[in-house]
Amino acid sequence: MPCCSDDVCSSRTAMGRYRVVLWIVLAINAAMFLIEIIAGLAAGSAALQADALDFFADAANYGISLFVLGLGLHWRARAALLKGASMGLFGLWVIANIVWHTLTGTVPSWSTMGVVGIAALGANLVCLALLYAWRNGDANMRSVWICSRNDVLANIAVLAAAVGVFGTGTGWPDIIVAAVMAVLALQGAVTIIRQARGEVRSLAARTGVTSPVRGR
Question: Where is the chain membrane-spanning (predicted)?
Answer without folding.
Answer: 20-43, 55-73, 80-100, 112-132, 152-169, 175-193
